[in-house]
Amino acid sequence: KAPPDGYTLLHYTSVLWLMPLFRDAPWDPLRDFAPITLTMRQPSVVVVHPSLPVSSINDLIALARAKPGQINYGDVGSGSLVFLSAELFSSMAGVKLTQVSYKGGPQALTALIAGEIHMTWVVAASAVLQQEKAGKVRLLGVMSAERVSAFPSLPTFREQGFPGLEVDTWYGAFAPAGTPNAVVARIARDLDLELHQPAMRDVLARQ
After folding, report:
1. pLDDT by residue (tens digit) across 166-191?
2. Which are the contacts of 50, defined by CB distance < 8 A and separation ≥ 6?
């Protein structure tokens, strides 16, 4: 509802597009926003509890096929990115997983560390890397086209035999609908220049 003059912007995730599909959101992403530019992407990583006897995606699939419905995963409800990732994975791998929903992603990760659930999907971030180094979780694969620089030893799903199984969370800048095209283009150009500065890229990569 801000004036469409380029002085009030929104930086948000891909949930902007997903939420109206599953909930009564007070906005329409196509009607109410003027997309400016993509700023970042964070691919999803599959993490499991260390007690699960698997060390790769194919190990996980073999176990899930042997125990249909007995392997569960934590998400934040139907329609969430984790839910969609799990459904895509289950469909392509031909397995049946059981959904366990939590109020938020941190709660699902905490439940995984506590051994309440077997697996979940998280964004590739430094926090989960620290949990892996502490031996609290095990990372099986990253759902991106190429390996992530922060996780150089973690293979992609493509490398493990599942091309096309790619899911990421992206971040983007938006203005209110009706913002003049020239203003949107100017902001996009300025953001693009800043995002390609080496210092900025280093900060984002570390995060």
Report:
1. 888 889 999 999 999 999 999 999 99
2. 135, 136, 137, 138
